[in-house]
UniProtKB/TrEMBL annotation:
<keyword id="KW-0812">Transmembrane</keyword>
<feature type="domain" description="Peptidase M28">
    <location>
        <begin position="93"/>
        <end position="160"/>
    </location>
</feature>
<keyword id="KW-0472">Membrane</keyword>
<keyword id="KW-0732">Signal</keyword>
<dbReference type="InterPro" id="IPR007484">
    <property type="entry name" value="Peptidase_M28"/>
</dbReference>
<keyword id="KW-1133">Transmembrane helix</keyword>
<comment type="similarity">
    <text>Belongs to the peptidase M28 family. M28B subfamily.</text>
</comment>
<protein>
    <recommendedName>
        <fullName>Peptidase M28 domain-containing protein</fullName>
    </recommendedName>
</protein>
<dbReference type="GO" id="GO:0006508">
    <property type="term" value="P:proteolysis"/>
</dbReference>
<dbReference type="Pfam" id="PF04389">
    <property type="entry name" value="Peptidase_M28"/>
</dbReference>
<dbReference type="GO" id="GO:0008235">
    <property type="term" value="F:metalloexopeptidase activity"/>
</dbReference>
<feature type="signal peptide">
    <location>
        <begin position="1"/>
        <end position="22"/>
    </location>
</feature>
<dbReference type="InterPro" id="IPR045175">
    <property type="entry name" value="M28_fam"/>
</dbReference>
<feature type="transmembrane region" description="Helical">
    <location>
        <begin position="383"/>
        <end position="402"/>
    </location>
</feature>
């Protein structure tokens, strides 16, 4: 395992060295992103506003929408069904593979969970993350359409079974007691290992896990940060406390092994700000290579998402989050019916979209992105065909429903 990590680090650094030499073409690639419109991302978020607990209407609709989106972008689509601890419940991870234009055997991964608790619209958690995954796929597809290349293919995934399903009482599909964390990612890793082996022993070079990215709050004391962080995350604690505990940043959580991802993300973040006030805080874990959530119980929002299992399997990964229930309205609305659109202003869309842009740009840089053509600024336009597809696919269902 140690050798594998070493190999990944070496591969990643060699990619970075190459990417430094193609800096010139990167700016050209990002011409469409000069457009600061959040329209496409906003429309996506507005598709994820009803509860997506197992078997619900919103859950099925979200699955169909994600699959249609992948299909529209000419991605390879895999619906990975997996058994849960409840015989009556089958989870579904939605995987889309966007093949790089260059011959390559390696992969990058971007993922977010799409399920929610019952009666929880889950706009911020985690509709904002799933929408980001889809929007990043769209941006990269536009770039490939314009003959831009990156050195790897990108796997996108919507994870199921991230949330516990309390309705199942004594027989939950993914009990905490199983000790495997969210069941979706646990099963996804099985699929991934097999897939990489089949692709000529390809490598996974890195992963961005996105979990709730819309919540931005500039009020003093809008950010909760536990005293544990003073010791465990001293730089982060210092920055947030000296800033007056404002929830005005996106956090990137990394171990020493993942630091390249955070640095690349930071570089992208600061060079394409939609608003100079939006901050990035790197959360560097010190000491414990793979943190034990039982020890770091006071820092739950950094240690419960899908990156934990990727770390456990020695994959390079970074969690990108607005800190979920430790900020502003999510202190009361997390997993509840008020995680809906009422709090979402143009600023929130823009703050979330800044993360979308920075991740897409990071993927491009890490993959030695190259573009020879100029892309006209029209980032929202290719959404329309997708929406038309969505509407036509659902039209029959809609008519039946109305009747
Ligand atoms: C986009 O940004 C780049 C770099 O800032 C600039 O050179 C270019 O002129 C901009 N393009 C448009 C269409 O605004
Ligand atoms: C998907 O592939 C088809 C056939 O090659 C092409 O016409 C279409 O433009 C592609 N769509 C996207 C969004 O890349
Ligand atoms: C599965 O569903 C059946 C039929 O509704 C029910 O009788 C059974 O108790 C359920 N099993 C579990 C494990 O929930
Ligand atoms: C992309 O490359 C193809 C084949 O070389 C060429 O026909 C097409 O015009 C290029 N597209 C753009 C937008 O440059
Ligand atoms: C803390 O803030 C300073 C100044 O904005 C910044 O340079 C530094 O990177 C921040 N530290 C972290 C851990 O984000
Ligand atoms: C910001 O956080 C404060 C404190 O949690 C909360 O009362 C307020 O509603 C939040 N504002 C926004 C715009 O979310
Ligand atoms: C871009 O241009 C360079 C030099 O002209 C060429 O070697 C390379 O193949 C081109 N890349 C693409 C994607 O067309």
């Amino acid at each position: 395992m140690g050798i594998r990590v070493g190999l990944i680090v070496v591969l990643l650094s060699s990619l970075l060295i190459q990417s430094a030499s193609s800096q010139g073409s990167i700016n050209v690639a990002w011409t469409p992103l000069n457009e600061t419109s959040t329209t496409s991302y906003r429309n996506l978020i507005n598709r994820f506003t009803t509860a997506r607990n197992y078997g619900s209407e919103g859950y099925i609709a979200a699955q169909n929408y994600i699959r249609d989106w992948y299909t529209e972008l000419n991605m390879t689509v895999v619906s990975q069904e997996f058994d849960t601890f409840n015989d009556n419940v089958t989870g579904v991870n939605l995987i889309g593979i966007l093949h790089g234009k260059k011959q390559t055997q390696n992969f990058f991964l971007v993922g977010a969970h799409y399920d929610t608790m019952k009666d929880n619209p889950g706009v911020t958690d985690n509709g904002s993350g799933m929408s980001a995954v889809l929007e990043i796929a769209r941006i990269l597809n536009v770039m490939f359409t314009y003959n831009c290349t990156i050195d790897y293919s990108v796997i996108f995934v919507g994870f199921d079974m991230s949330k516990p399903e309390p309705d199942y009482g004594d027989d939950p599909p993914c009990p905490l007691s199983a000790g495997i964390g969210p069941c979706g990612v646990f099963n996804f890793i099985d699929w991934l290992e097999k897939y990489l082996t089949e692709q000529d022993n390809a490598q996974l070079l890195g992963t961005f896990i996105i979990d709730s990215i819309l919540n931005y709050n500039t009020s003093i004391n809008s950010q909760i940060i536990s005293e544990d962080a003073r010791v465990l995350l001293p730089d982060y604690f210092y920055n947030v406390s000296s800033g007056g505990y404002k929830g005005n940043y996106i956090a990137g959580v990394v171990r020493a092994a993942d630091v390249t991802l955070a640095q690349t993300f930071r570089d992208s973040w600061v060079t394409m700000p939609l608003n100079e006030l939006y901050q990035f805080q790197q959360v560097d874990l010190v000491g414990d290579a793979t943190p034990n959530p039982n020890v770091h119980i006071q820092l739950p929002t950094f240690f419960q998402s899908e990156h934990m299992q990727l770390w456990a399997e020695n994959h390079i990964a970074m969690l990108i989050t607005d800190t979920l229930k430790q900020r502003g309205y999510q202190q009361t609305c997390f997993d509840k019916s008020c995680d809906n659109l009422q709090f979402i202003t143009e600023t929130n869309y823009e703050f979330g979209y800044q993360t979308v842009r920075a991740i897409a740009d990071s993927i491009f840089k890490l993959g030695s992105g190259n573009c020879n053509t100029t892309i006209p600024p029209s980032s929202g336009s290719s959404l329309l065909p997708s929406l038309i597809t969505f509407i036509s696919v659902h039209f029959v269902a809609f008519i039946l429903f109305v009747l």
